[in-house]
């Protein structure tokens, strides 16, 4: 699957943050995993929102699925099945 065009505009670090957010991780969890502060994670989230022209998690999830982000399918199925 080819990456969805807006996803390709993200830097490698923004992609890491984006994927963490789409997987349901909190800023603190993402920060720990990446070795950055939660505030830096929030800064990346703001940049991602500008580049993707949306800050809605549901739209980010659609972009992630269309871009082939791995490991996301399991989380989406869990949320749907509730």
- Poorly predicted segments: none
Strand content: under 5%
The level 1 CATH classification is: Mainly Alpha
Please name the CATH architecture: Orthogonal Bundle
Helix content: over 70%
CATH superfamily: Winged helix-like DNA-binding domain superfamily/Winged helix DNA-binding domain
Series of H and E elements? HHHHHH
Q: How many distinct helices?
A: 6
Largest sheet entry: none
Tally of domains: 1
Q: What Rg do the Cα atoms give?
A: 12 Å
Number of strands: 0
Shape: globular
Compute the separation of the termini in Å: 28 Å
Mean of residue pLDDT?
Answer: 86
**Category from helices, strands and their pairing:** mainly alpha
* CATH level-3 fold name: Arc Repressor Mutant, subunit A
Overview of the structural elements:
By secondary structure, this protein is mostly helical. It has one domain (5-81): Winged helix-like DNA-binding domain superfamily/Winged helix DNA-binding domain (Arc Repressor Mutant, subunit A), CATH 1.10.10. The chain has helices at residues 5-8, 12-22, 27-34, 38-52, 57-66, 72-81. Helix 2 (12-22) crosses helix 3, helix 2 (12-22) crosses helix 4 (38-52) and helix 3 (27-34) packs across helix 4. The relative contact order is 0.19. The model has no long low-confidence stretch (mean pLDDT 86).
Q: Quick summary of this structure?
A:
This protein has 82 residues and is mostly helical.
Name the features:
6 helices; mainly alpha; Arc Repressor Mutant, subunit A; 82 residues
